[in-house]
Specification:
This protein is an alpha+beta fold. It has a single domain (10-101), classed as Orthogonal Bundle (Arc Repressor Mutant, subunit A), CATH 1.10.10. Helices cover 48% and strands 15% of the residues. It is built from five helices and three strands; from the N terminus they run ααβααββα. Strands 1-3-2 form a three-stranded antiparallel beta sheet. A hairpin with a 5-residue loop joins strand 2 (67-73) and strand 3. Helix 1 (10-20) packs antiparallel against helix 4 and helix 1 (10-20) packs across helix 5 (94-101). The relative contact order is 0.24. It comes from Telluria antibiotica. This is Winged helix-turn-helix transcriptional regulator. Pfam families: HTH_20. Residues 5-100 form the HTH arsR-type domain.
Amino acid sequence: MKHRSKHLTGDELLAMLAALSNPHRLRIIAALRVGGRNYISQLARELGISRPLLHLHVQKLQDAGLVVSRTEFSADGKALNYIEVADFDYALTPDLIAAAVASLGNDHHD
């Protein structure tokens, strides 16, 4: 998923900021950025968290467009769910926020 030239909607900005507001999710992105793509079981071991918890965090990151997952099969037929960082590059600026706010739906209130 490539976001480089795409303008964020208000909902996308909120999802991205919410996804990045958790230290586990920041660690997931950092580990994938440094170590490259990885599969769920191995990444959970490396980060010292359970697979169910990792799945939960990966889903939040995936919903925000920050990571992508692919299921691949090993030579012995085992399904492996690989996760990698999506290609994104945003500069959080007042202009980006103003443009995103203009597209917010009425269902977002404090």
